[in-house]
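Chapter review: from sequence to fold.
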Amino acid sequence: MIQCRMRELIAIKGRRERRRITYEDIQAESGVNKNSIAKLTNDRSAMVGMSTIDRLCGYFECQPGDLFVYVPDP
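The token string follows.
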């Protein structure tokens, strides 16, 4: 199963910038819809567009492999 590491990336960016990162902050700075952000954060998104991945990687200053991780099903 593919899992999104949004919670971790939000926490890392928040610690780095010494502030609380909200979905509204991410939406305002990246242009990604708040509902898409919520779905990714809660691992409820079935599909993610390349433009969304591109914008999130730009916002979090990361690579796509930092945003998603493969976890084998038990």
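Two observations follow directly from the output. The chain is about 60% helix and 10% strand. The first helix runs from residue 6 to 17.
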